[in-house]
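# step 3/5: fold
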Amino acid sequence: MSIYSIKDLEKLSGIKSHTIRIWEQRYHLIEPNRTDTNIRLYSDDDLVKLMNISLLNRNGYKISKIAGLNDDQIKEILFQLNSELPSVTTQSVNLNKALLDADELLFNQVFETSVEQIGFEMTIEELLFPFLVNIGTLWQVGTINPAQEHFISNLIRQKISVAIDQERKRTTETLPRILFYLPEGEFHEIGMLYYSYLARKANFEVIYLGSSVPFRDIIKMDEIRPFKILFTSFVTSMVQGTIAERIKIKRKAFPDKFFLVSGLQIKQEQPKLPKNFFKISSSGDFKKAIATFLKREKHKKTSPIV
């Protein structure tokens, strides 16, 4: 059984610590244990109960009414809510439950319901990507362990991989070749995997090399199977100025390539990008960038030879 602080409960449930304290004092919804120094400590059961209360509250139930319900009544109402089209907030709470309990069945139920409601791409972008950011925060503060993070990350990776396989079957003609890779020491590839799905859906030919690839191998791959677009991402923290230097090396090696760069470090460092480099912060950025590339290619073909 895990032990949680009130800050942990806030991160997992989305309910402010101040509100949790009020609910405890006024309605006795949760009664945590306390240390000798009067610090609140919560159990797994406390966390699940609070998440259930949060879910009911966000779906229109007043706290005063919830306080009068027993556990069986709460579960019965939740079952009814989950049989309807749940909101993204409801789905997020259920994803947290799936994470904490390593519950693949619950994860699949949330995912399939969301895809049915808002589609695959919006499910990835509006539900799962924010959820992954939250997981990173929880892992850093020690609320969850690496095994739980790997469990959920691999389930998400599986869903995107299935979608990629489906796009392979649909593709009849292909646009220019685009290579996806992460530099050495980079292993957070779920975002890149999703962008490779978008590229396949747009009928680009994709070369996907995965994580921690030496740049010399990228140069070698261009000799084996030339590509026109290069996608990479920088997530892991590095010394200030390192990204700018890496970009300079890439541009020197491939002066005529079209580069797409993403990741937390690009967002934080904000390096000055050459004209053939595009910062990708969202699927919208990605779609605009590849549309720009196609326009340039079309212009090259139609421009008169002098």
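# step 4/5: annotate
DSSP finds 14 helices and seven strands in the chain.
# step 5/5: archive (pending)
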